[in-house]
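Handout, section B. The chain below has 387 residues.
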Amino acid sequence: MPGATSLELIEKLVAFDTTSRNTNLDLISFVQGYLAHLGITSSRIHNETGSKANLYATIGPENVSGVLLSGHTDVVPVDGQDWHTDPFQIVKKENKIFGRGTSDMKSFIGITLATIPKFIGKTLKVPLHLAFSYDEEVGCLGVRSLIDFVNDLPVKPIMAIIGEPTSMEVVTGHKGKRSYVGQVEGYEAHSSLAPLGVNAVEYAAEFIAFLKTMARNIEKDGPFDPLYDVQHSTLHVGTIRGGTALNIVPKVCTFDFEFRYIGDEDPDQIETQFMAYASEKIEPKMKAVSESSKFNIKRVNDVPGLDISPDHEAVSFVKRLAKRNDYKKVAFGTEAGLYQHRGEIPAVICGPGSIEQAHKPNEFITLDQIHLAENFFLRLMDNICEN
């Protein structure tokens, strides 16, 4: 579809059901074909099973550092949501375009692709890099191998613009996140003999209460960052499962928890604190009743935060493109932190759509946001292309 408009490409991208549990290969093939018709070669970086892929392409000279545009191709599920239209077919109503991924974040990819023909019609002073990933919504998984691919290139990008929905505001930071599964293995007994058993649910609850105490202390003592809506780090327990019957001392209890931390907080210090409480305070009491008892905590994901100085050249550059003098930080995680930490590539977040619409039924983006992003890319073209 070379020459297609932003809306046409957004419609095509939304029609691919790239919910994270599904493959994204059909979408990647479409993008590769689109770029190939424009004379642009691209590379796939597959996952271990070959069922998903990242895409990377460079437009312009390859011997100098350029600007990388990054977006993820997967979307969250629509299961159980009250959609008024087919979520994988865009519907235009007044000033809005409805469909899964319109805000988060297929519109950014569609607008990017629609602008590419304008770039290749000019001489680029520095290259434009495209980086489209998989499995962002389930822990920023795919982008890690994509960044490793970029790290092995002879010349790395000078900066990355992550097109997550920020209403085209310039974002210089987001919280980091670590998530865990806790599993308590106790010792079963009849409930009438409760002291002879090791109650996995109760010991899990004791640990969860400790996490709540940690959360309250952080809320009271900080550190704080006033640029966040929640100005401090947070701890949160999301699920808990345990026990089989009321008259049986439960043997197993599992729970999922996370913490999200601001830039001034040391995630290792937080982790060390609750790991020590489990191993030094709780587990010895369990083993005093039954040596077979265990308290295990497994880290299942680690997404570093983003914290780039507002005075950095990359921030100033994106401000000019967005025609904004302000900047902000957001609580939700993105791939930007991984670009900054794993790739040592300065990253700034700026993209069309509102995070308030992301992941919700009847997700939408306004035409005004699409137009703002289109103008953003035209100004990018003016900055990196010869007159």
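Note. The first helix runs from residue 6 to 15. Compare this with the example in section A.
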